[in-house]
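User: Can you write out an input/output pair for a complex, sequences first and structure second?

Assistant: Here is one pair. Inputs:
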Amino acid sequence: MSEDKSRKQATLGYVPDSQLTIGRFFGGNGNAQQSPKKQTTLAFGAKRQRASSGADPESAAEPSGVKSENDDTPDANGTESSKNLKRENADEVEESDESDVQPVPKRRRKAAKSSSPTPQKTPSPKKSPPKKSPAKAKVQSPSPPPAVKSESEDVSDEAKNQDGEEEDADMVSEAEEDVKPAVKKTMEKVQATLKASGKDPYPDWKAGDPVPYAAMCTTFSLIEMTSKRLVIMAHCSLFLQQVLRLTPKDLLPTVQLMINKLAADYAGIELGIGESLIMKAIGETTGRSLGVIKTDQHEIGDLGLVAAKSRGNQPTMFKPKPLTVRGVHEGLLGIAQVQGHGSQDKKISGIKKLLSAADSATAGKGSKGIDITKDKGGPSEAKFIVRFLEGKLRLGLAEKTVLVALAQAIVSHEAALEDKPTPSPERMAEAEAVLKSVYSQLPSYEEIIPAMLEHGIFNLPDVCRLSPGIPLKPMLANPTKSITEVLDRFEGKEFTCEYKYDGERAQIHFVAPDSIRKYPAATATLQKDKKGLSAIFSRNSENLSKKYPDVLAKLDGWIKEGVDSFVLDCETVAWDTVNKKVLPFQQLMTRKRKDVKEEDIKVKVCVFAFDLLFFNGEPVVKKSLRERRQLLHECFQPVEGEFQFAQFGNTNVLDEIQTMLEDSVKASCEGLMVKMLDTDQSGYEPSKRSRNWLKVKKDYLAGVGDSLDLVVLGAYYGRGKRTSVYGAFLLAAYSPNNDTYETICNIGTGFSEAVLEEMHKALTPLIIDRPKPFYAHSSVPKDQPDVWFEPRLVWEVKTADLTLSPRYKAAADEFEGTTGGGKGVSLRFPRYIKSRDDKNPDQATTTRAVAEMYRKQEAVAKEAAGKRGVDDDFEY
DNA sequence: CCTGTCTGCCC
DNA sequence: ATTCTGC
DNA sequence: GCAGAATGGGCAGACAGG
């Protein structure tokens, strides 16, 4: 085993020898035979051996439990090289798409899969219809033709039954591109069958009348009951068709409520309602104490259900008017708009109003609320109002699906208007493509829906187009587990690597003064000054212009002669003007966000541009990345500390990518973005594939990056699909000096459902009344876990970064009196890797080691500053 | 006016 | 942000 | 591979309440 020092180095950060480590990921790179590997492999597989012969390795090399890249966990190590070798012919998953080595095993896997679920599935549909119908009966009690009800209910299942096998086969192979038509056929079938019942799940309201909110909730309930996406889509689309047929003017609020939004993101409308206020409102509406509500929430894991359950306890003096979609939307908007003194009470009374009017058909009839164990609570209006407020409808239906359903609904509706038959699958697909494309260029239903109603869906592209003033959806990237995966995915294609800067995504829009009249839409959203119109939008289309007045003021300095308008895709990064270097993300976040005056900006920012989406009156999103980048470099000029081009290199040589990844990290970046340069997939079209780019970060690579072994001290009750198990856990590092456990982070991702169950079982016996006196943890009430445990379980956890935390205590004493001011260390993006059953809690990562890791990270950042300029314009 | 809590939004 | 899961 | 739903740290801003 290598000695202590080298290990720690490797662990602690982004140090030179980590290159070696990365090398391992390519397999057979020469360092696979590094000694530490074998040792640890041994250590894991056979504890005894380690105890006797390997006592040293464990205690000396891993006194603190810190993982180094060398001291990698055995499985990763031991199988490392073989894994890589195997990759070409084994089932290494996903990365095979473009290679033709794989199809055979892949198919086989699928075939095997499809054969087993089929028999299981068959019985289930028979069971489900009777389960569903009672819920329906409740809501539809006014005028329900029961026969129709169950019929429409059954159809989806019937469809499954009749040709279950056929369909299953289709579904299973859905992923294969070449089977897409079959999927469409299936979808058609589902929808057609649903439709064939002749009735919508909710009976028609009077044409022109406002859409009843109950109608939407009925659809929601149907959607919630299935996980089949085609069925979800069909329900959604059918309901939208009904709205189109009866009350098209309510389509906009209907869609908005479906996607859990009150308005387009860039409009900046916030509800200002969170869990606390919702609980207060539910308590007041139902006459139950806050404590009871909280207990319920813990048990039920869904405030919507809590509201539904306690609904109807209060006798209503008179029957309120039934809620309408429009009414709910307006009510919520009202809640969003109140502000200032006493606004919280007003918000609560707004919620109370909605909740008291909810479920007027069923409430107040002496029923004690609904049975929430049935059908996930059924179509309760209260439930969905509350879920809207929480910002999570949890239907298995969200923006993307609604968009597609909307396209289908419109095409069908348009066809029906002209007495044409149901549109062909091809036409459906065409409509979807059109709507997706339009939406990604102009993500605003306020704009799209009226235009669509007026001009028809196929004319949308002429009416709703990308233009400065309205943010478009940004391209996103997929994480990549190794550089070989990158090579596999982009095999045979030219691609480029860019530094991934650790800042805030910024889409910068600009129109020069002389051209303002050409962009009428822009005047509404862009900030106007003597230098023209401009705005900055965030990754989620929020308007950040108020946060970056300094950037907008200087933007004319970046452009060359003749630039009239543009939309740039960039990253803003905090900038150290003295040392001329990039500062960490945490620094950037301390910037003021509102009413920022240029004079008193404390955190300066440098903009790193990496794409050009609109230029001089023309969208350039369909051009290849190579062309866009060339245009970008031709027409803009870097300004030190203000505006730079993202560092990049075009290479497909593994070693060079590896080197570049190392360099990016040394330059305080997060890693690399990898993008195709020329193919049709190199266009900037999120509608086609929103995650068309790849990102490579050190901590994605198995066995590379910082990982720690931490002790589980507490847990939080899970919600939604994690109800009845713990949803998150409180972790700590160990301080041998005073024998304390100092909290370092919560963790809630990385667990499979099985592991969550297992942990729940393992931890429940360890529950204790109160935290041990030797637990160092925040005393803020909101920071307390729901349950505390004996210190026993040790988990390996991976992290991207270490941060100084106002909440966690790990190594806090080490930072007393420093800049940190007594703050502890915490983890950025913590995720569970695996259980370390082989470790006792006092063998967990020590707080000293944590402090060391943090310092090392800082040191690397500083070192980068020194080197800057030398390899600044290094050619790759 | 100060402090703690809640919310929304960055990652 | 990261990760898991059903389709 | 997509889409959705679980979950993380941590900041500024808005309010409530003393």
